[in-house]
Amino acid sequence: MKIFLIHQLDLSRRDGIVFHIIELAAAFAHHRVAVEVVSPRRGATDTGFPIAVRYLPMLSGFVPLGLILYEISLLIYLLLQREVWAGKAVFYVRRGTLLLAPHILGLLFNSPVILEENGIRFYGLGVPDNSSVLSFVFRRLVQLKYQTATHIVAVSQGARCHVLEIAPTVYPKVIVVPNGVNIELFQPRSKSDCRRAIGLPADGYSYICFVGSFYALRGVQHLIEAMPQVLQRHPNAVHLLVRDGETREELEELAASLNVSGRVIFTGFQPYEALPAYIGAADVCVAPYTSAYGPGDSLSPLKLYAYMACGRPVVLSDVSVEVDPLDTEQFALVVPPEDVS
Description:
Elements: E1 2-6, H1 16-30, E2 34-40, E3 53-56, H2 63-79, H3 82-85, E4 89-94, H4 101-109, E5 113-117, H5 132-148, E6 151-154, H6 157-166, E7 174-176, H7 191-197, E8 206-211, H8 220-233, E9 237-242, H9 248-257, E10 264-266, H10 275-280, E11 284-287, H11 302-309, E12 314-317, E13 332-335
Parallel strand pairs: 1-2, 1-4, 2-3, 4-5, 5-6, 6-7, 8-9, 8-11, 9-10, 11-12, 12-13
């Protein structure tokens, strides 16, 4: 058997979502299962991943048209694979409103199609959830994908509920498999060694670490807004903001306006393999999600598993999070979202 792990992400980003795919593929390979990652060519392809990646054409610019080209390329490519014709193919599809080709081939060749669902939104298509006609069309496509999948993997109970809200009849197919982390990479390390490795002073400062992309819902702006009060109580505190994102310029301006730029370090993009050193350098790690995540959203953030695997204390916004252990107070100090006091 061979698993074709299919997605529509840009692997050149090398962020947590990308490595979620690569780690999953590596886990399959670890169990001596043949696996190939199938990806759109959306950026650089020389990523140095330890897993074979097949890049297929995808137009840049107008996203739906690009995905349609990827869909056609995907169908042709899979039809050329001998495992498909021999009945030895398994299609593992990670999310995606389109990506219908594996479902079509699954029906034609009686091959298993496993659909992983991390949340119900029209990711990557630029389609708002409340868009009338397009929302209806894509919702029907998602229903079709659920109905034709052999199994549906949901990473949380919340994701499972979202699936069943859209397609109640697929109940027997849905299984919950929580997110996890590579504990060979993310593990407790010496704080001073980690600081030296990334060029931070080994002593004299207390580091508050956030790892992730910068955008509004992540709440990084509230970390910076709280910094003047934090410094009153802990004069040696420093924010260590790891990675990058669309709101970085705004965050830098906010830090400057509050006169805390000297105590906020923007590391810029860091490769996935370097993240354990940044987490290990911290005294505490944070996940300041905003109240925009309501009771209907159920998060299973990879960063929380990474923080815990590295043995660092966690401060977490009081939003709907599903992490094992389920009682968040067992591993985190839970605080009201957006409360900078």
